[in-house]
Amino acid sequence: MSAARGDAGGRKERAAATRRRPVAARPDLSLVVPSETSYLALIKELTKRMAEAAGFREGTPDRVALAVDEAATNVIEHAYHGAADRTFEVRYEDRGPEFQIEVVDTGAMVDPRAMPRVDLDRYVAERRTGGLGVHLMEKIMDSVTFQRSARRNVCRLVKRKDGTPEAR
Amino acid sequence: MSELSVETREVGDVTLLYPRGFINAHTVRRFESEIQKALEQKHFKLVVNCEGLSYIASAGLGAIMGAIEEIRGNGGDLRLAGLNETVRNIFEILGFHHLYRIFPSEVEAIRSFRDGEGAAS
Q1: For residues A10-32, average pLDDT
Q2: Minimal Cβ distance to B89: which of A63, A73, A133
Q3: ipTM above 0.90, yes or no
Q4: Do the Cβ atoms of A124 and B24 come within 8 Å?
């Protein structure tokens, strides 16, 4: 696993650089993680710390961390079908008014929107156990989007900082 | 603390499960296996004491969902006790607190079986 930390206070400098030339935004932190479920706890703990550093309090860091755990689990189980010899990337970016996490893989295209919406009553009756992860992500985050480009799947999770006290 | 350990004990006809650690896609098989052991022994009154559970991801919730029909179909129930704020919040986010009976302590959960109280739904 490798990690790269953005320079301290680099956001203003990056903004200035962006004005000078069109470069892609650099995440505050990115990790390349082996596609093994044993790394999920590490991702969860790191995400919690990053959410705390972004200013979230009172349970929100735990919930955001769970949403990212679910996104990473989806990659391992669905995009890579459980293959442990692949990697995926987790990128964190404090964008000021919002905290963004991207989970990027190069596995099979997975369209979570094709999953049926979760109906808990039917869930019990039909003994279904899948699809809860995406439902949980959507309940926790302000925005969850999935994109496929250049043979990569990008799951982008955004939590705004201006939510209600309960949401924060 | 290890990632997950699950101890069990019997109190009368109620089986108590004590998950310690966290339940996610990596550890869920251990949790599922303890539930299945109880079902194989025809123990359908289960209490999951969550006092040692730091968090539960959808994999763990799915494990409960996957067993609940068999449990209730045999006249039993799976009830939860001692949830910390994080775990309780996850249950509430998904609306699971409407599907499962949750008690502050395992004593109250065991008593609910003795008093013949029904399942949540």
Answers
A1: 62
A2: A63
A3: no
A4: no
